[in-house]
Amino acid sequence: MTPRSLAVEDLIHQLEMRRSTADQRRFLAHWLKGLPSKILAPCLGLLLGRPLGATVTVPALKTALFCRVNKDLFDASKEAGSDLSETLALLWPGGNEPLDLADLVAAVRTGPKDERLDTVAALLDKSNALARDLVMRVSTGRFKSPVSPDLLRSTLAEVFSRPVADIEQNLANSEETLDPFSSWLFGVPFPETLAEQTGFLSLPTIQACEPDATGGANLCIALPSGSYAQLVSNPDSCHLYTLAGDRLEGPENYEELPPKTTLLIFLPKNPAAQPLLLDILIKDGEDLRNLPRQQRLGALEELAAAGALSGFARTEVEPLPAAASLGATFDNPSIDRLFLLHAAGTLDPSSDTLGEVLRPPHELYFKILYAEGTLSRQGIFAGVVTLGAPATTSKQGNYAELVPVGKASLHRLSQKDKSTLETYIAENTLERFGPVRKLAATEDTSLIARVICRSIDRASRRKAGLVLKEANVMELFDNSAAYRVSSLDELAPLALW
Amino acid sequence: MPETPAQKKTGAQTILIPTASGLYCPAGDFYIDPTRKVARAIITHGHSDHARKGHGAVLATRATLAFMALRYGKNFAGTSQIVKEGETLTLGDAKVTLLAAGHMLGSVQVHIEHQGATAIISGDFKRSADPTCPSFDVRPCDLFVAEATFALPIYRHPPPEGEIEKLLLSLHLFADRPHLVHAYSIGKAQRVIALLRQAGYDEPIHVHKAIAEASLIYENEGVSLGSLETLGADLSDPQAFDGKIILSPPGGVAEALHAPVTSFASGWMRLKSAAKSRGGDLPLILSDHADWDELVTTVKDVGAETLWITHGREDVLAAHIKETLGVDAKALSAVPFAPEGLQP
Predict the structure, then answer these.
(1) What H or E segment, with its residue span, contains residue A450?
(2) Which of A100, A244, A253, B276 is most buried, by the most CB atoms less than 10 A from its CB?
(3) Interface test with A, best of B152, B154, B179, B257 (most A CBs within 10 A)
(4) A334 to chain B, minimum CA–CA distance in Å?
């Protein structure tokens, strides 16, 4: 079963329903991959919040609706609780066709003004309910993009394997219309002819693909010693594809790969490929994942020093023999020569061979200030907590000065820790704001969270001056672990500028 | 015997009388889906708002009786009698036929004929195809008593195949997370399963115990639902369900799973406000009730002179039907209760 590509109205609906940015990213990526180049520009314009301009007014649309539907039915339906655009859209006796965004743009932008209502009405007449809702909102200027420009830009960068900076620059240069941007994006022979330009190789030795600490899936690749390493792709030079039968799918962000996927890494001949080994997870059967990261990197260095990874320590990769066809056998015994061992000991982005790398997640400790979740008769089932850090490094400091640094999800917590949290909420709630509980977080009483977050960003509007991104609480400790809590002073250097 | 339409209309309206216990047929001395304990009841289907325990004698389809026994235990009524869909019985002076309603397995309309006039009580029904039960059987009548759960024109259900496609797409994109679909344990859950099977999904589906028990009745009635695995102690390993579909009645289970994609299958998901508050990540617009178009079409199809409407926005549907079809339509609650002498 290959799921169909998403129509734009389906995408908007899914993006509006999904609360998680990571979820939205996956939908966006899937949609972009199935998007014909000719409608990329209007779709991106829509998602970037570049309004097409209000073409028709709501009263005019209501009048047009009342030519088709009894006004009493409108009044009764409006009472049912749906918003105005949605009521108009659902009541409009439309068809079943998906939305052709090019039609909508043409209706809104190019047609004579006095004919626009008729054109929009004709579009509504043939569109399905979700499409009608979108048409209503766009044509009346009520549409608000459900995704942030940052998310869209980074997803475009992933899907089209372009640097984010290039995406931003080209978008900035396409203020009037996004057609030049679309042409630029699709201008490269991608992805159809990529296979002709590159050699490729499968990695049949992938042993596992486990969710990582931040909820994504890391690829664990078998090393010659029987150990496993964490692979991070360099988006500038490495494209990851999945193989389904003899058909290629991708490129995929490595975080999106489902478990047990056969993975292909396409390696451009020029410049040389640079997949990077950044971490070692299991060494000779020993699970290292609970060790501090520095110790794991040390283990990787030891492997390198012992010569087990000698084949990896290369700055250039020999071009691989191009396969005759995509259906050819992908097995290749020279797999170990693909990897460049840079992570053993250094992750310095200024290194001339590493280039830009995906930063590893941060592991930090915070105090829990607030818990938020679903109310029930028994209390609250917390789903999210707000984390706090003291302003200064002094561990005897005044804990009244705990500053919120961001929210973290609890879905990675064990049942035992969830129970601990529920008990703590029940016994240490200071104030209640609907589903939010303010919890005791003093020098003597607090709940400490071990948190993994993808990055720490600067946030000038927040009191802390920074915010955690994609944070997950992994484990809870009692107040005796308070000495581990990071202060804002310590966090500041970690924040991305 | 009534000769003219006016006589037929009057005759039909005497077939049924509203009482405090529900609709009563004096000619046959029975109630349909009574809300209180009565001596004789015909039950249209197995949902708890229609099938209640404690009646003296119950007449229903085999599946409906099985659902009642599952919910209330074997002694849910003094006696029970199985009637097949399409089979005609004589009860007192009335001839009663149970016709497929298309709502869920075992659901029926009650067709009553008395002195040349006919009445149909639809029970809950829908017109769209459902792989788990026979389609709605259209028969002409003089009085049609229709449910109207979705009696607003904003409620037009999309094709169910498209909703299942959404679920499968999400499963493809989020193969590292379990997909928890909340659905009512009798009827809706089995329809979701059957639609998934129709769409080619042949992996085992994990189901809550309540759904598993009801699904057994479906299997016994010849509705194949494929491989189902009952949720049990294995919930202690929340990650074991990554990439799987889990069906559960609303509530529970989600807490025990690892980062599930949550979904709710219901016709109410049509409105974004409801979908956002109750639909989880993936609201599925799947209803076992007729939508607005189906309600209007059905009233046209049965050609009744009189329409009594129950549940939902009766006023809206009644006004629309009156205006567009000229049918004498009113809310069942607006029909006067039986005079003292006619009360059982």
Answers:
(1) strand A448-458
(2) A253
(3) B154
(4) 30
Token pair in block for residue A23: 């979820």
Q: Are strands A436-439 and A429-433 parallel, antiparallel or unpaired?
A: antiparallel
- Note whether A30 contacts B: Cβ–Cβ < 8 A: yes
* B-chain residues near A381 (CB < 8 A): 255
Residue B216: its H or E element: helix B209-220
CA A102 – CA A41 distance, rounded (Å): 9
Choose the weakest-confidence range: A4-13, A145-154, A200-209, A397-406. Answer: A200-209
Q: Which of A25, A28, A75, A77 to mutate to test the interface with B (most CBs of B within 10 A)?
A: A77
The half-sphere exposure of A137 on its side-chain side, counting CA atoms within 13 A, is 20
Nearest to A86 among B156, B176, B272 (CB): B272
Query: Which pair of structure tokens corresponds to residue B108?
Result: 């029926």
Cα B53 from Cα B45, distance rounded (Å): 13
Residues of chain A with C-beta less than 8 angstroms from the C-beta of B263: none
At residue B242, φ and ψ (nearest 5 deg) are -60, 130
Q: How far is the alpha carbon of B154 from chain A, nearest alpha carbon, in Å?
A: 5
pLDDT confidence band for B39 (50 / 70 / 90): very high
Q: Most B CBs within 10 Å: which of A24, A411, A417, as the mutation test of the B interface?
A: A411
**What pLDDT was estimated at residue A377?**
57
Q: Distance of CA A147 to CAs A15, A30, A98, A143, A471, Å?
A: 7, 15, 21, 12, 19
Name chain B contacts of A70, Cβ cutoff 8 Å: 320, 323
* Rounded Cα gap, residues B173 and B59, in angstroms: 48
Contacts of B156 in chain A (CB under 8 A): 90, 129
Q: Is B234 on the interface with A (CB under 8 A)?
A: no
Closest Cα to residue B103, out of B137, B68, B140, B55? B137
A21 CB contacts (<8 Å, ≥6 apart)? Answer: A148, A151, A470
Q: Do B272 and A215 touch (CB under 8 A)?
A: no
- Where would I find the beta strands (DSSP E) of A154-205? 198-202
B41 touches B51 (CB < 8 A): no
B274 interfaces chain A, CB cutoff of 8 Å: yes
Q: From CA B140, how far away is CA B151, in angstroms rounded? A: 21
Whether B269 contacts B155, CB under 8 Å: no
B259–A415 CB contact, under 8 Å: no
- Return the minimum-mean-pLDDT range out of A81-95, A103-117, A167-181, B73-87: A103-117
Give the tens place of pLDDT for each residue, B263-310: 999 999 998 888 887 778 899 999 999 999 999 999 999 999 999 999
Q: State how far the Cα of B16 lies from the Cα of B183, in Å rounded to an integer.
A: 34
Tokens read off for B179: 């997909």
- Cβ neighbours of residue A172 closer than 8 Å, sequence gap 6 or more: none
**The pLDDT of residue A277 is above 80:** no
Helices and strands (H, E) in chain A, number of each type: 16, 16
The predicted pLDDT at position A273 comes to 35
Rounded Cα distance, B306 and B327, in Å = 6
Which of A83, A225, A235, A86 has its CA nearest to residue A153? A235
Three-state SS for A303?
helix
Angle value at C-alpha B174, between A263 and A296, nearest 5 degrees: 55
Q: Across the interface, which of B176, B258, B275 has its CB nearest the CB of A411? A: B258
